[in-house]
């Protein structure tokens, strides 16, 4: 299957006070359509920056990003931020409909689609609430619904569950797997949590070093639904940890 | 202190204030023509209403107030948004602002009269200038203070032009700060109303000057209290509107 995203020779550096800082260096990465790709690495390794380049919030210094999405896609990619970043002056339903306001749909249809997305993340009852009335986990679900509402072909998620307590986090991990299975979207998911990575991923890419490079690229072929603390998952995580510490000591 | 007790104390304080005020002219401590006792005010108020002067003056002043406030706050918000959004606009206007901002609103009275005559438009002009700077700086600061992260959300969803940034993020996010400025302006505008009308534009201020030249100080007090009441009314209404507009806040 042809890749939906093809990153070639991507580097990103910025200059401040005459000092040049490289965040990412000569990155090559091809993401097949429909893959759940998890990018792990320590903080400061450029994981988030990579997503920001993909969604055009940051410009690469060199390299190209090839995107092979359907030509009629209005919003090929959507990003879920680490902190939900809901717009506090909009009710939940209007937050979910936010991205649709660019799509030239009548208001009733935007509302219908937003309501359907809220149902998908299990928050249909909270449509009329204000963001400040929600828990952290609910806010993040709304952010996921907002990203899905624009029907992106690729869903980018930047450490979306790292600010949540572990109970909520596990619930949302299962939820995102279910949504992935239901919608078949390509997902690029950034985390620093290796257990989370192996639980969710079809493939784990490890970024390490400064500037960040791809240090390991591992397929996780365990069947779904997966069970947490399954022996094979634990083994995959152990292998990945070993790989990660070996690579970072090399670099 | 309970709410009831503090309300009781407030009532006692007001009663004592009115008592001293009433006693001073009655005991001939001051000339009643210089300080009319509060008991004489209702009758004066009745005469002003019966003669039609009160409704006319209030209607005139209110129209200056509302139009002046609208023009001044509207211009303040518009230019404050521009200045908050675009650095080049802020730089372009930086020295103009430095030059004009320190000039008190009332210093514009001579030009107001030369340009507009002793007309309602002169009052509107003075009120608008008095209000403009407050709202301008409140708006500029509020736009500057908008969370960059929210602007990024708009960009990530493809809202990248300045107009979309303004309507989707900046304006709603800056609304609380803008409203604080407008509320301050609400009070400032009454000062400008009186000032403008004291120079002859018909309204409450002009009526007060008329009355004081005839030593009808009870009528002056009627209009002073009228202004306090009108300001209280507008401020209460505005606070209610503010609460409704900002009902999304915790």
Automatic annotation (TrEMBL), chain A:
Q: Name one GO molecular function term.
A: ATP binding
Keywords of this entry? ATP-binding, Cell membrane, Membrane, Nucleotide-binding, Translocase, Transport
Query: Which segments constitute the ABC transporter domain?
Result: 7-234
A Pfam family recorded for this sequence: ABC_tran
* Organism superkingdom: Bacteria
The family line of this record is: Belongs to the ABC transporter superfamily.
Question: Which PANTHER family does the protein's record reference?
Answer: ALIPHATIC SULFONATES IMPORT ATP-BINDING PROTEIN SSUB, TAURINE IMPORT ATP-BINDING PROTEIN-RELATED
The protein's name: Aliphatic sulfonates import ATP-binding protein SsuB
Organism listed in the record: Methylorubrum suomiense
From TrEMBL, chain B:
Q: Which SUPFAM superfamilies match?
A: MetI-like (SSF161098)
| UniProt membrane topology term | Multi-pass membrane protein
Source species, domain of life: Bacteria
- Main localization is membrane
| Signal peptide bounds | none
Q: Print the keywords alphabetically.
A: Cell membrane, Membrane, Transmembrane, Transmembrane helix, Transport
| Residue stretches in coiled coil | none
Q: Which residues form the ABC transmembrane type-1 domain?
A: 58-242
Under Pfam families, the record lists: BPD_transp_1
| Location within or outside the cell | Cell membrane
Q: Where are the transmembrane segments?
A: 62-83, 95-116, 122-143, 188-208, 220-245
Q: Which InterPro entries match?
A: MetI-like, MetI-like_sf
Q: Which family does it belong to?
A: Belongs to the binding-protein-dependent transport system permease family.
Q: In its UniProt entry, what is this protein called?
A: Aliphatic sulfonates transport permease protein SsuC
Natural source organism: Methylorubrum suomiense
């Amino acid at each position: 299957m042809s890749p939906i995203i093809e990153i070639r020779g991507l580097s990103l550096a910025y200059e401040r006070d005459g000092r040049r800082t490289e965040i990412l260096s000569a990155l090559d990465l091809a993401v097949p359509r429909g893959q759940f790709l998890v990018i792990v690495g320590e903080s400061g390794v450029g994981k988030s920056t990579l997503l920001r380049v993909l969604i055009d919030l940051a410009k690469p210094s060199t390299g190209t990003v090839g995107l092979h999405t359907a030509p009629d896609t209005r919003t090929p990619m959507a990003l879920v931020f680490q902190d939900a970043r809901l717009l506090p002056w909009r009710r939940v339903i209007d937050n979910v409909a936010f991205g649709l306001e660019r799509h030239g749909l009548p208001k009733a249809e935007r509302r219908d689609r937003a309501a359907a997305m809220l149902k998908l993340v299990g928050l249909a009852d909270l449509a009329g609430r204000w963001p400040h009335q929600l828990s952290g986990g609910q806010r993040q679900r709304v952010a996921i619904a907002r990203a899905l509402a624009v029907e992106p072909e690729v869903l980018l998620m930047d450490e979306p569950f790292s600010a949540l307590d572990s109970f909520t986090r596990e619930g949302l991990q299962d939820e995102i797997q279910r949504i992935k299975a239901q919608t078949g979207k390509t997902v690029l998911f950034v985390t620093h949590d290796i257990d989370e990575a192996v639980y969710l991923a079809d493939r784990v890419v490890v970024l390490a070093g400064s500037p960040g490079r791809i240090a390991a690229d591992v397929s996780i072929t365990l069947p779904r639904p997966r069970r947490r603390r399954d022996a094979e998952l634990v083994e995959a995580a152990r292998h990945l940890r070993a790989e990660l510490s070996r690579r970072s000591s090399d670099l | 202190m309970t709410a009831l007790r503090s309300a009781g104390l407030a009532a006692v304080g007001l009663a004592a204030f009115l008592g001293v005020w009433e006693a001073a002219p009655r005991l001939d401590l001051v000339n009643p023509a210089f300080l009319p006792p509060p008991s004489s005010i209702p009758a004066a108020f009745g005469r002003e209403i019966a003669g039609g002067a009160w409704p006319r003056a209030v209607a005139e002043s209110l129209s200056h107030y509302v139009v002046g406030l609208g023009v001044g706050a509207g211009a303040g918000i518009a230019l404050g948004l521009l200045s908050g959004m675009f650095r080049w606009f802020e730089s372009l206007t930086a020295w103009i602002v430095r030059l004009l901002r320190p000039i008190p609103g009332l210093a514009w009275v001579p030009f107001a009269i030369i340009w507009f005559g002793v007309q309602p438009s002169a009052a509107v002009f003075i009120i608008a200038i008095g209000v403009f700077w407050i709202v301008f700086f409140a708006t500029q600061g509020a736009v500057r203070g908008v969370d960059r992260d929210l602007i990024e959300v708009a960009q990530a969803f493809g809202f990248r032009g300045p107009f979309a940034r303004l309507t989707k993020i900046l304006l709603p996010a800056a609304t609380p700060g803008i409203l604080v400025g407008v509320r301050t302006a609400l009070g400032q505008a009454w000062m400008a109303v009186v000032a403008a009308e004291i120079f002859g534009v018909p309204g409450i201020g002009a009526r007060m000057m008329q009355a004081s030249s005839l030593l009808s100080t009870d009528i002056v007090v009627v209009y002073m209290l009228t202004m306090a009441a009108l300001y209280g009314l507008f401020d209460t209404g505005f606070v209610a509107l503010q609460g409704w507009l900002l009902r999304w806040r915790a």
